[in-house]
């Protein structure tokens, strides 16, 4: 469920738990497309038959593919209705905790850790966890930075 706020309301959301995004499937086609886009064709990602005998029992998504999916998952979680300039400012910390097997479903939870003013806007530091359906360990844990400008 998307939390929709105004820019003025956003400034008071430090500590807010935004809940969860929807589940999305990370299928082999998405993995192959990411491999083509990044020129990372390591067999554990794209060679389905060989990957079945590998350490994960099948092909897995690239860690950076899973991390990149934080963008569409994040946009499901927070909308600042009167703000049209939104920037992914960076990452303070990222860990790839466990693999995402081809065909798995992932979703993200997010909590706004801090909000600081920057020239013309605010910066949110957000604790994000991307989890894999049915797995005890998360796939990705990240401390992300987003900027919203008036």
Automatic annotation (TrEMBL):
Q: What InterPro entries would the database entry show?
A: HotDog_dom_sf, MaoC-like_dom, NodN-like
Q: Which residues form the MaoC-like domain?
A: 15-123
- The protein here is known as Unannotated protein
